[in-house]
Amino acid sequence: MTLKPPPLRDDCFALPAGVDWTPVDQALAMLQDRLHPVVTQEQCTLTDGLGRVLAAPVMALRSNPPQANTAVDGYGYAHESLGGGDAVLPLVDGRAAAGLAFAGHVPAGHAIRILTGAALPEGVDTVVLQEDVTVGDGQIAFRAGLKPGANTRKAGEDVCAGDIALRAGRVLTSADLALAAAVGAAHLPVYRPLRVAIISTGDELVEPGAPASAGQIYDANRPMLTGLVRQFGYLPVDLGKVTDDRQTLRRVFDRAAEQADVILTSGGASSGDEDHVSALLNEAGAIAEWRIALKPGRPLALGMWQGTPVFGLPGNPVAALVCTLIFARPAMGLLAGAGWRAPQAFQVPAAFSKNKKPGRREYLRARIRDGHAEVFKSEGSGRISGLSWAEGLVEMADAGQEIKVGDFVSFIPFGSFT
Predict the structure, then answer these.
(1) Which position has the higher pLDDT, 390 or 379?
(2) DSSP code at position 112
(3) For the chain, N or C: smaller number of CB within 10 Å?
(4) For the whole model, what pTM was predicted?
């Protein structure tokens, strides 16, 4: 049976009464509190598991290692059988190798040839490196000083049978697949990949490469957002650009709700005459126009369309990218079953100075050079070249700040969002 999560409430984005400007942290807290996974569960093979989100814990069906074994090539013996001083031990016939266990017992006071990865034979608890041994006439000699259990691995010292090997919500890495295989898992319980519909709105938009007349611009947001969605590990559903026609946008929204789990739009998120994203969500009775105390950004239309969450981003590419990274990215992580993950920031000295006014959280396009955070030469939100130039964002707190060269600032690499 396919498990389906409960639907989101139509009012999940509603702001408390009297709220006008919403601080960034408050907006993020509301998103984290009100969203949950919207994707169904399925099984996949280890081969298909990379990048998928675990829907349930992976339990170890077998211990890793499954039995005590040697970490080196050498000679195994029972440590208690040694007397004081250097050791001379006779060798038993045969050897132990990985996949070829020694069937017999190694008597006390004897040793056996053993190769890396081999299960420790009965009567063996310590291994001496072959480089530290003199071999001759059916016996070995080596110096005293090895501790009990040297050069061996205990059964289950990595993971014991019955333990949780991988926890639910984890985005699977290649190393996770190795661990799942080692503990006996052949199939993994995962969430179906989140499908994200991407829509650009505006009469002024032209497809890149097409003829553009006066007053028209190329659609930069859709390629950017499609790339971001892929970087996040989700499936983009490109529904193209839509003119400023409410009925056309309604039909595209209907398609998006059928084909995707979440809708990401750019443009039309404010409250002007041609802001049809906000108008349509308002007609549906499930919209909250969040005026975020944020630069760049501010207008963020959040709502539901036929049970599908909609993130209405600003039309400006710089603001659209910042709002996607700060708000849509962690929210989509919850919707995809991976949980809420705040991006990792690092404190680095500034290579710039700035006197920031209080009242809004600010994000500056930035990169690291010689251990210092440089910021783009212009804060203009229309300067798309600054996004290409940047390697991350400098986050400046809501309060006023005076930053001088050498002061520590909070730098968030773009990689922290993926």
Answers:
(1) 390
(2) E
(3) N
(4) 0.85
What's the rounded mean pLDDT across residues 180-207? 95
pLDDT for res 245:
86
Is the per-residue pLDDT at 232 higher than 60? yes
**Pairing relationship of beta strands 195-201 and 139-142 according to DSSP bridges:** unpaired
The pLDDT score that the predictor gives to residue 90 is 97
pLDDT at 5: 78
Q: How far apart are CA 50 and CA 204, in angstroms?
A: 40
> Is the distance from CB of 294 to CB of 319 less than 8 angstroms?
no
Structure tokens at 254: 């209907």
**Coil/strand/helix, residue 314:** coil
CATH of domain 346-417: 2.40.340.10
Name 345's Cβ contacts closer than 8 Å, sequence gap at least 6.
395, 410, 411, 412, 416
Could you read off the pLDDT of 287-332 as tens digits, one per residue?
A: 665 778 888 876 788 888 888 989 989 889 999 999 999 999 999 9
Which residues lie closer than 8 Å to 368 by C-beta, 6 or more apart? 348, 374, 391, 392, 411
How far apart (Å, rounded) are the C-alpha atoms in residues 217 and 233?
A: 29
Quick check: 114 and 96 in contact, CB under 8 A?
Answer: yes
Residue 336 makes CB contacts below 8 A (sequence gap 6+) with 37, 39, 53, 191, 193, 194, 233, 234
User: Closest Cα partner for 362 from 311, 297, 290?
Assistant: 297
Residue 271 pLDDT more than 60? no
Backbone angles phi, psi at 38, to 5 degrees: -120, 0
337 is written with which tokens?
């079953």
Q: Is the pLDDT of residue 275 over 70?
A: no
Q: What topology does CATH give the domain 69-153?
A: Molybdopterin biosynthesis moeA protein; domain 3 (2.170.190)
Q: Which two tokens stand for residue 103?
A: 């069937």
Correct CATH for 21-40+192-335 of 3.40.980.10, 3.40.1180.10, 3.90.1530.30, 3.40.50.720? 3.40.980.10
pLDDT tens-digit readout, 144-167: 999 999 999 999 999 999 999 999
CATH class held by domain 44-64+157-191: alpha beta
User: Looking at the predicted structure, is the pLDDT value of residue 101 above 60?
Assistant: yes
| CA gap 387, 383 in Å, rounded | 8
Q: 370 with 383: CB under 8 angstroms?
A: no
The domain limits of the chain are 21-40+192-335, 44-64+157-191, 69-153, 346-417
